[in-house]
Amino acid sequence: MDNVITVRELRVRSRDKNLVGPVSFSLKHGSTTGLCGPSGVGKSTVLRALVELLPNGLTRDGELQVLDRTIAPGKGDADLRSKIVLVPQTPVVFGGSILDNALFGLRHLLRASQEVLRERAEKALEEAGLWKEVADRLDSPAQNLSAGQRQRLCLARALALEPAGLLLDEPTSALDERSRDKVEQSISALRGSRAVLLVSHDPAQVERLCDTTVHLDQPVTASTPAAVG
Ligand SMILES: Nc1ncnc2c1ncn2[C@@H]1O[C@H](COP(=O)(O)OP(=O)(O)OP(=O)(O)O)[C@@H](O)[C@H]1O
Fold first, then answer.
1. Neighbours of 14 (CB within 10 A)
2. If DSSP codes are grouped into helix, strand and coil, which group holds residue 143?
3. pLDDT tens-digit profile of 126-160?
4. Could you tell me if the CB of 57 is within 6 A of ligand 1?
5. What letter does residue 41 receive in the DSSP assignment?
6. Does the keyword Iron apply (predicted)?
7. Closest among 183, 191, 229, 223 to 210, alpha carbons compared
8. DSSP 8-state class, residue 173
């Protein structure tokens, strides 16, 4: 199976209004795909649709296939969300330690000894490019990390689940150049091992990190000629 995610004619609707799409694309194992388009066109909404975490009132149709499973609308579950993990634009850091944060999610999904869980979390911190900066303070509060480190901690939390696909929503939009470079290095290192869908407003970043690009156009509505026939 080469494709981790395949999407055909995906649309997101709010009651009778088409908000997003139709859009079709596939994410190949080991490749990084940019998701681009003007503000408000629906990039974040597409990411949420892929993990079946749309806000109340929004529904999707069209085909969504994750690995060898077709996900019917409304049938997303924990299994889907451990294989495909969404890292939101604003890093969510919980009140505990750096290690607690890296383990969050994994603790709920993996029945394993503390030792095994910790190994997985440490590996994920390494993969996210944060290990060297936090190895000597895993028990200190995650809230003390810088914005760039928080973003990489969220990446580590996602990677600890060993997902086949990662959906990254503008992971560097709030960062200075130095922090951005570090996050980009971490994303770059995922090439070959994960399918990554990266929402970015920055064409240079897409050029640096992505193998292919999906351009999201304004939604097709019933009144536009493109929707007829
Ligand atoms: N819960 C909701 N109910 C109704 N409409 C919504 C809801 N959430 C998002 N939308 C609408 O869906 C459209 C797409 O929003 P979305 O945030 O996905 O765009 P975006 O391309 O990610 O924008 P940006 O680049 O500014 O982050 C917008 O018109 C937005 O107003």
1. 14
2. helix
3. 988 899 999 999 999 999 999 889 999 999 999 99
4. yes
5. S
6. no
7. 191
8. T
For residue 116, the cross-strand partners are none
Residue of 41, 59, 90 to mutate, ligand 1, most atoms within 8 A of C-beta = 41
pLDDT band at 1 (very low <50, low <70, confident <90, very high): low
DSSP element (H, E) containing 45: helix 43-50
> Is 226 a member of any domain?
no
The whole domain housing 62 covers: 3-221
Q: Which of 17, 13, 64, 30 is closest to 223 using CA atoms? A: 17
Interface predicted TM-score (ipTM): 0.95
The continuous run of DSSP H or E covering 18 comes out as strand 17-28
Exposure on the CB side of residue 180, measured as CA atoms within 13 A: 13
The residue among 53, 49, 68 whose CA lies nearest residue 2 is 68
